[in-house]
Design a protein that fits this description.
Blueprint lengths: L21 E11 L12 E11 L16 H14 L5 H13 L4 E10 L9 E6 L9
Length: 141
Amino acid sequence: MTITEPKLIGLVPDHLKVRSARILLESLAVQVDIGFHDFEVGAPQRLLVSVEIWLDDVSMPHDDDPAHAWNYDFLRTEVEELASARRYNLQETLAHAVFERIAAFRGVKAVRVRTSKPDVYPDAHGVGVEIASFSGPWPEA
């Protein structure tokens, strides 16, 4: 016996339809040789990287098929590869490298990248940078 899910297509009113789809990679911890102070050079630090990707296609992946969705492992690997590819003086440089890599993918409507060093100040959660393909808190429709 198989249980089928009810089909609810057409029951959601237009004013409640999906208008935005976003993929999130939040606070991925990576070890990065980053910083320009003498004590930072050659001493990898923990860096938290967050990536938000707004998609052109807001529809649900067809038939719940992973082949029609973003691969989170791929996104994570891209960030990790960039973080370990070289030494960085500035968080801004790494953030722009991640941004450019992600923004180049097909289907991306908008991107925001945030980096943060969580271990710099004992009285702060972190210090970092954020860049986005839009101004304001959210991309326009």
